[in-house]
């Protein structure tokens, strides 16, 4: 099964080229723009994620189909209300998935790839993990279990990813206030990619920003965003970008003396250490 998002890849690449040229002809000293090695790494990560993730889609489809057959009712694709439910359910599932991948280290080890660039442009949207396809499956399973057809779930996931592609830009300032209040925007997503203390673990939304407002994870863009990680990895090697945090977590687990600490290194938040406030709380 080929995800709908695959058909958008040529347009993504073209738009990356257009944005890169815009920095050449309309430079802005406040924006970091593009760097060839960084962009090549992002493209490599995106290509790898599709190659690895495509076969896994068959497994995902089988799981969704099995749950769909167990659902007490099957919602009709011909009903507009099914699509409305799907839109909000998918976006909430993405919020939970995204927040979990920032707060659980073994999941963060996968998602950290997307935050590993010190630049923020449309190519950053393509810097995708090679392992998130495996860690993301459980978060959308409830949608199939309530009777939403699996093909609809896949389609809505693709719509969400296409929308999120356009969030990765510094070329768009804040939008009309009502739009900023309801929808995720480039301004909100710049905050999410910031390594500033104020911006850490904020603005997890996919299409909507209302979940962040409801669950108190929202932060508006104020001070200038510093992109990247709190400890940047300083490499353009795709393999190191893909797996560096898994290696770091494994080293911490091996050096831990207690099983409780080993579990903390895997299932605690990134930066967890024995004796830290998060370990004690």
Please describe what this structure looks like.
GO terms for molecular function: glyceryl-ether monooxygenase activity; iron ion binding. It is a multi-pass membrane protein. Its main location: membrane. This protein has 281 residues and is mostly helical. The protein has helices at residues 9-25, 36-70, 80-103, 105-111, 122-125, 132-135, 137-145, 150-165, 177-182, 186-192, 210-214, 238-255, 259-267, 277-280. It has one domain (34-272). The chain is built from 14 helices and no strands. The model has no long low-confidence stretch (mean pLDDT 94).
The residue fraction in helices comes out at 55-70%
pLDDT averaged over residues: 94
Number of helices: 14
User: H/E order of the elements?
Assistant: HHHHHHHHHHHHHH
**Alpha-beta content class:** mainly alpha
Reported for the largest beta sheet, the result is: none
N- and C-termini, Cα separation: 44 Å
Q: What is the global morphology?
A: globular
Q: Compute the gyration radius: what is it?
A: 19 Å
Percentage of residues in strands? under 5%
Low-confidence stretches: none
Task: Return the domain count.
Answer: 1
Index terms:
59% helix; mainly alpha; 281 residues; single chain
Secondary structure topology:
Blueprint (H helix, E strand, L loop, with lengths): L8 H17 L10 H35 L9 H24 L1 H7 L10 H4 L6 H4 L1 H9 L4 H16 L11 H6 L3 H7 L17 H5 L23 H18 L3 H9 L9 H4 L1
InterPro entries: Fatty_acid_hydroxylase (IPR006694), Sterol_desaturase/TMEM195 (IPR051689)
Membrane topology: Multi-pass membrane protein
Subcellular location: Endomembrane system
């Amino acid at each position: 099964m080929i995800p709908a998002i695959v058909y958008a890849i040529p347009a993504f690449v073209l738009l990356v080229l257009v944005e890169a040229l815009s920095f050449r002809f309309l430079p802005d000293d406040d924006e970091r723009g593009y760097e060839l090695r960084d962009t090549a790494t992002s493209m490599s990560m995106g290509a790898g994620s599709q190659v690895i993730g495509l076969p896994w889609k068959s497994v995902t489809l089988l799981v969704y189909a099995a749950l769909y057959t167990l659902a007490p009712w099957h919602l009709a694709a011909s009903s507009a209300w099914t699509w409305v439910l799907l839109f909000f359910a998918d976006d909430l599932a993405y919020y939970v998935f995204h927040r979990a991948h920032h707060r659980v280290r073994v999941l963060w080890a996968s998602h950290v790839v997307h935050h590993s660039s010190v630049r923020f442009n449309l190519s950053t949207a393509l810097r995708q993990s090679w392992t998130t396809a495996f860690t993301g499956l459980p978060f959308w399973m409830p949608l199939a279990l309530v009777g939403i057809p699996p093909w609809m779930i896949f389609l809505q996931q693709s719509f969400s990813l296409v929308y999120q592609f356009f969030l990765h830009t510094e070329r768009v300032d804040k939008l009309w206030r009502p739009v900023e209040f309801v929808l995720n925007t480039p301004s909100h997503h710049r905050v999410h990619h910031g390594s500033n203390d104020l911006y850490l673990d904020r603005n997890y939304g996919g299409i909507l920003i209302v979940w962040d407002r409801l669950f108190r994870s929202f932060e508006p863009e104020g001070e200038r965003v510093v992109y990247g990680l709190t400890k940047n990895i300083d490499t353009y090697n795709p393999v190191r970008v893909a797996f560096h945090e898994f290696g770091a977590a494994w080293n911490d687990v091996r050096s831990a003396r207690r099983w409780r600490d080993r579990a903390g290194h895997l299932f605690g938040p990134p930066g967890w250490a024995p004796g830290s406030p998060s370990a004690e709380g």
